[in-house]
Amino acid sequence: MAVTRRSYSRATETERREDLIAATLDCIAEAGIQGATVRQIAARAGVTGGLIRHYFATKDQMLQAAYRQLMDGITEITKAAAEGADTKTRLRRFIVANVTPPVTDSRTLSLWAAFISHIPLDPAFAAIHRESYLSFLAELETLLVAFFAERGRVASEQECRAYAIAVNGLIDGLWLEGTLAPDLFKNEELSETAIASVEAMLRLPPGELS
Amino acid sequence: MAVTRRSYSRATETERREDLIAATLDCIAEAGIQGATVRQIAARAGVTGGLIRHYFATKDQMLQAAYRQLMDGITEITKAAAEGADTKTRLRRFIVANVTPPVTDSRTLSLWAAFISHIPLDPAFAAIHRESYLSFLAELETLLVAFFAERGRVASEQECRAYAIAVNGLIDGLWLEGTLAPDLFKNEELSETAIASVEAMLRLPPGELS
DNA sequence: CATCCTATTATTCAAGCGTATAACAAGCTC
DNA sequence: GAGCTTGTTATACGCTTGAATAATAGGATG
Hints:
Arc Repressor Mutant, subunit A, homodimer, Tetracycline Repressor, domain 2, 2 domains, DNA-binding, elongated, mainly alpha
């Protein structure tokens, strides 16, 4: 007897890859890295398990692609927030964007942490981290340099780098705090703390960034 | 024929639990949460798989116990670093301890991140996080209050809390940066950045904490 | 030294894992 | 509209997983 098969429609390579990556992120966010099995991911993407190997040589490669896309998305959001306007506003918006939804989001955190925990175990993940970290740091440093320049404040390259590292640390740390325990912070508390702290770190007079 | 069994020696409940928890942490650190299987953990602890269920009702409960122990260990190290001495020294040592080995350690990071990624998925992990976070924050706030008091500087409770949150964020963020990419930072760079940043955040004159 | 309790081993179970491969059908090409 | 390419389904394989259960032996108790 003729076996009936599921009907399906073909997709372009890019579409399918994006669907699979999105499904991967969904699965990790909902059930952790353990719950992100080939079968679950395929089901979520509306395809059968075998298809995954047609697009990714191995499951690990798909995870890496998902990690890359996650970080690219975050970078894009925060970069977009800092566009246009004067340097002061751009710097402020960049900082605020990093401690405000959708960046402070338990889904994002869960994904981020799942990937971070693989960094010490797998050089491929370490490379992705490094790239996105350096890109983030460079963006921040550019903002700081422009800000100082506009004010006519002299700051050596080392100073700017040190500031960027410190401010980046603060942003990451507050992002963590706010995302892990959102109920502990009032509405604007995290943003205000972030702005006030950066003002102080840069030795600016209070209120200079608002 | 008589089946020969492996010889073994009984251990006290506390010993065995500690061994199992230590083995759990080892496995997670070396192979990720995915590699921390009941069998691997048992092998690492030198027992057979079945024994785990004698001490922990479920694998998840063992993971939670391991998470608790990890955080307790970190808290203990940083608290110990801040003992004795005057308030300024204690504050400085506390900060430095958090961005210096053994706290900045890829093993610790891998473990921490693996557990963090479970927080949004499992309330039990969220509770453990909350407890250790609040304990850390309280310790830091105590140090700050004592420091301000000694200087005769007035600071409201809200101010102190805000400072503690910000400084905690900075510490966590720098810890992350330094641990994820240790090769990017010179020997004392992270400690110095941390101290200088906290000085600035608290609006102290440069060098006040060194 | 016999007894008893229980920590520990050994074995089994059903389920799920990542991967490999063969059969099928969608939809472009000519 | 016939033919061909290949994206997709379907199925199978060997292995591992967390958990449950039964059998054994360590070692304290009397």
